[in-house]
């Protein structure tokens, strides 16, 4: 007999009243911060079905009204929002702009991808999902009062996207960082800003101490040292890619010396060439 199949989703408690919902699909991590009067839902999943499961899971924990935060516009973090309506949906203005400009393109690409992977059920769910645009735009550092608990939302510049939002729960020493950090897979560089991503991670590190729990958008929670190590790798691949663009080294040399796999390094090279040529 083979190994038993793992559950599709599970809870991980990362602090007092701070929970992460971990999904097998894409190794996704979604967040829940509980307050006395309200709760904050961090990201909504990749389709209406996953969003509905996530909303039901939150309701199994708390009956308090919820607010939704989208850390960024990529489908796996933002396409499940309809299940939470009506409620405020917060994001950086760039998140709304990207969903308007690129939401349907993301849908088409991921429906195709899941069909190629032989996962027609997920493809069908994405195809049938109603996209919801955030309606509460964040402007700079924002403090959310959930009743007896404050969550600080901030954006640290160009990184994984041009609109990443970080959610810091100071009293629990937990930081939700979306896809600024990934655990279990390399960072996703398509559409990113490799030259300035390390600066965004420096600002994340400023929020952390030895005991801080950092929740990435994918993979299990990590600590400060993991974030520092991933930042160093992003710096290194940025320097290599910049050297390719200036002709100082060849692409094959960069691929050989990169801390990341070839596909990831090529994506970083494309992103650097398209957006910002200086590491």
Radius of gyration, in angstroms, nearest whole number: 19 Å
Distance from N terminus to C terminus (CA atoms, Å) equals 51 Å
- Measured as a percent range, the helix fraction is 25-40%
Structural class comes to alpha/beta
| Cα shape | globular
Average predicted local confidence, pLDDT:
95
CATH topology of the domain at 9-191 and 214-222: Metallo-beta-lactamase, Chain A
| Percentage of residues in strands | 15-25%
**What is the name of the CATH superfamily of the domain at 9-191 and 214-222?**
Ribonuclease Z/Hydroxyacylglutathione hydrolase-like
Task: Give me the strand/helix succession.
Answer: EEEEHEHEHHEEEEEHEHHH
The CATH architecture term of the domain at 9-191 and 214-222 is 4-Layer Sandwich
Could you characterize the architecture of this molecule?
With 279 residues, this protein is of the alpha/beta class. The protein has a domain at 9-191 and 214-222: Ribonuclease Z/Hydroxyacylglutathione hydrolase-like (Metallo-beta-lactamase, Chain A, 4-Layer Sandwich), CATH 3.60.15.10. It is 36% helix and 18% strand. Strands 1-2-3-4-5-6-7 form a seven-stranded mixed β-sheet. A five-stranded mixed β-sheet has the order 8-9-10-11-12, with no helix packed on it. Helix 3 (93-116) packs antiparallel against helix 4, helix 5 runs antiparallel to helix 6 (224-245) and helix 6 (224-245) packs across helix 8 (262-274). The radius of gyration is 19 Å and the shape is globular. Mean pLDDT is 95; it is low at 1-6.
